[in-house]
Amino acid sequence: MQESNFSHFPPPRPSRPPTRHPAQPLLARIGDALRRHQRLIAGIQWTVVALYLFFLLAPLLLPLPHEGERILGSLRKFAQFLFWGVGWPLIMASMLLVGRAWCGLFCPDGTMTEAISQRGRNGSIPRWMRWPGWPCAMLVATTVYGQMVGVYDFHPATLLLLGLPTLGALLTGFLYGRGRRIWCMYLCPANGVFALLSKLAPLHFRVDEAKWKAYRDTPFRLVCPPLIDVRRMQRMSDCHACGRCSGYRDAIELAPRAPQSEILATHNVGTAEAVTLLFGILGVGTLAMTWHGSRWFALFQSALASLPGQGGLAVLQQYAAPWWLLVNYPQANAVFTLFDGLCLLLVLLAGGGMLALALWLPLRLATAIAAYAGLSWQRLSLALVPVAGVTLVLGLSLFTVKHLRLGGLALAWVPPLQAGLLAAGGLFSLWLAWRMLAVVAAIRWLPALALSALPVAAIGAIWLEKLF
Ligand code: SF4
User: Which of 229, 244, 246 to mutate to test the pocket of ligand 1 (most atoms within 8 A of CB)?
Assistant: First the structure.
């Protein structure tokens, strides 16, 4: 990511931010409204911070809910449902629909890190933080840790999984940047996922470089929280859609775009980004969302337990660990032994790695057959973003559906909707692969496309098995 050239911008001079003519497109006016109503947005952001802290901390003062207690009968259960049953599925869906507006307009960690960095030590960003593997490493670490501590079912685990990133955001904000969101740019565990899903958003802040250069008036002061070089911005992956640049130099406006446009226009895709997609989301993420209650996980456990000479493993079955390492709530009949923890770790990391490899191999072969200089496996992997986005929304909403059904709702319309979304995501992915391979000679095109379809089919099969 290139850094903005606005950090040393001269002090703001009085200038009237442009207002658009009512005949201008509605989206452009919405973008401008975001810029003009920064105080209102700050009020909303701090309200979200207050609600977030309340639902994170207040349930700790209450006892564990009884078995079968309803969502509305217990603040702990309600908070869990709010975070994992409502919040996360909606946030993931919003990435596909409006880009990273959650990050720029609502995220409590983003709000706090930006606020504290305005009064912090303003250090320069250390080199280690710029390592491109952080998005994948943070995503995998939080996904695996979340499963080990039972994040969906137990509030103390939620406190750890959400609270630790919040502390990280505060510390990073205090140490680095001047009113910028350094945490969000480099270390946020969701950064890699959000950057990939927002590629499909049908909205973007469009930059007109010719207008930018031709602008002769005094522009208003521009502060881009994720330090984007706005003048050259081509994609929504890094943009937090905060709207602060809307109308800058008459060259930036919120505008519609085709959902496939960013993926098809991106030619240089980094390996780190592709690995985040294949290993972080489709490998580890898929297994994390499907292992619970699955036949294959039970089979793996019994196969491991029956290995010859597994006396050491038998010992592991007798011990548990503290709740902040492994699920340990005897009062709720939920205790993972060390053996359970080992199985889960192996399934998520080794199994996630093998699944990622199985998805990567056909893509690698497809690009080898295509033999087209502009088509790397990294680029072809982006065709899987739609199906990955749909599975994230489906996987995270499993918790929502389960609890609504426990609450007495039949939700008969949910399975057809899930199947429809899965089919739509899969077809969109196939169509993207088709478009990317369209440049290839006809004789190579068909085998390359058939190979590109294999990962989509594999993901579809895993989810059909889970959902039906
Ligand atoms: S480019 Fe920067 S300032 Fe403009 S909307 Fe995106 S995050 Fe906000």
Answer: 244
Of the given ranges (154-163, 402-411, 457-466), which has the lowest mean pLDDT?
402-411
Contact between 371 and 416 under an 8 Å Cβ cutoff? The reply is no
Q: Residue for token digits 């952001």?
A: 45
Cβ–ligand 1 distance for 104 under 6 Å, the answer yes
- Alpha-carbon span 92 to 190, nearest angstrom: 10
What's this model's pTM, rounded to 2 decimal places?
A: 0.92
User: In this predicted structure, what is the pLDDT of residue 20?
Assistant: 64
Phi, psi of 207 (to 5 degrees): -110, 130
Nearest by Cα to 201 from 45, 26, 41, 386: 386
pLDDT at 31: 96
Of 191, 237, 190, nearest to 88 (Cα)? 190
Q: Is the CB of 251 under 6 A from ligand 1?
A: no
Per-residue pLDDT of 317-376, as tens digits, reads 889 999 999 999 998 889 999 999 999 999 999 999 999 999 999 999 999 999 998 899
Q: Is the CB of 233 inside a 6 Å radius of any atom of ligand 1?
A: yes
Nearest CA, atom 8, ligand 1: 242
DSSP 20-57: --TTS-HHHHHHHHHHHTHHHHHHHHHHHHHHHHHHHH
In angstroms, the CA 444 to CA 368 distance is 10
Would you mind telling me the total number of residues written for the chain in this entry?
A: 468
